[in-house]
Fold:
Amino acid sequence: MPDPLTPYGNKPMVTPIVNAVNYHYASFEVLRRITDGEIDGYTYHRDDNPTVRQVEKMIAAMEKAQDCIICTSGMAACSLVYLSFLSAGDHIILFHDIYGAHYKVALALERFGVRITWVNADESAAIERYITADTKMIFCETPSNPLCKIVDIAGLSALCRKHSALLVVDNTFATPFHQHPLALGADLVVHSATKALGGHNDLMAGAICGSKEHYDRLWFSRQAFGTTLDAYSASLLERGLKTFEIRAEKMAANAAAIATYLLQCKGVSNVRYPGLTSDPGHETARRQMFGGYGGMMAFDVGTTIDDAKRFIDRLKIIYHAVSLGATESLICIPYLTTMLYMPPECRTTFGVRENTVRLSVGIEPSAKLVNDLRQALE
Ligand SMILES: Cc1ncc(COP(=O)(O)O)c(C=O)c1O
Structure:
């Protein structure tokens, strides 16, 4: 029977949104071949979905991975990594400089018997002393959220291999346009695809890229836990991916111009952008990133949280909002937003201040953004 979507062999330019939850089997022989893993058929949405699968293949190619698993959010992806590779009694090393929701996940992991050591990304070169015989995983972000601290991926990878631990890198800030952690020795790459991969503030998704062996283990957990993305969001993500490279290029160019401008602004201090030669992470970033340094930066405004609030209130083009990697520029005070998950005393321990703002640069004309910042700082 001809495929009703492609009766003459023409293929749709856009992957169809397959909303079906289940599929009727062509025969018992097909059912057997699917369940025996001989063929890649579809049976039930929680297992797999053709629209989602297409996007997994696209992101795997972008990260130069053997395969990719897509979940309902970035945190679903991170949680799936923890739940798939850790057991009671294991020890893991997490960086304080990661997205705040990990603190909540860490509480659950501790309840299940996983021991956690939190380290500062600034001391990543000296973390071997925290590794024990039980250390099974090191999880980091580079550039990190929100201070854009840089961790040497190849260095950490060598350490992880020496101690048989998995290295997981969250590549959300860098994006695959600027950094390929797997090529630098990481075992798994995670993404909040809600951010630059989707790019339009209209979908929530997460991705995990790695080897076929890791894919199989993650697939098994996703199928069990039920965090498979819906087909409509996958279709939006596919659409976002089609313009990802051009958006990433523009975001990085805009961010470089803005960071340079901010360096000479009165009332602005501690500009953190890995593309600046003055940035403490620049040398490492130059070695492991390419084609620019992404669209994320952080800086301090004035000396108090009220200075930062007044500055944000005066912005006319840059939106006061959380999230990042979108077509529009977004700004927020991490102390009041993305770090709310942490106890207040932890929020300012590793360089973030109450008056630190995090800027996600969009694809607007850069002069418009610089002018907006100028009028708000005046
Ligand atoms: C670096 C990073 N990783 C993971 C996440 C979690 O992603 P999601 O909001 O899609 O669950 C975020 C969210 O902001 C993030 O910034």
DSSP finds twelve helices and twelve strands in the chain. Residues 73-75, 99, 141, 145, 170, 172-173, 192, 194, 204, 206 surround pyridoxal-5'-phosphate (CB under 6 Å). The CA atoms of residues 319 and 330 lie 5 Å apart. The first helix runs from residue 28 to 35.
